[in-house]
Amino acid sequence: MTTDEVEDLNRARSALVRQRSAIAKRLGSIELAPVSMAEDLTRILLAIEVLDRALTDAGHLHLGAQV
Q1: How many Cβ atoms sit within 10 Å of the Cβ of residue 49?
Q2: What residue ranges do the domains of the chain occupy?
Q3: How close are the terminal C-alpha atoms of the chain, in Å?
Q4: Where is average pLDDT lowest: 19-23, 51-55, 62-66?
Q5: CA angle 19, 63, 12 (to 5 degrees)
Q6: What are 42-62's pLDDT values in tens digits?
Q7: 8 phi, psi to nearest 5 deg
């Protein structure tokens, strides 16, 4: 995998993480959240996991900002 491809995957992951945070914030503020919103969150979490696997397989383990 090229450096550009790895950067693209990292940018895609960052965008999904921002989306995950936005949905989680909305879910937390709603008394009775719609199931569709939980389904959206699930799809985003799965997509992040797939990107993490692709990065790991390419030898570029995503460690996050905490490290």
Answers
A1: 11
A2: 3-57
A3: 24
A4: 62-66
A5: 35
A6: 999 999 999 999 999 988 877
A7: -60, -45
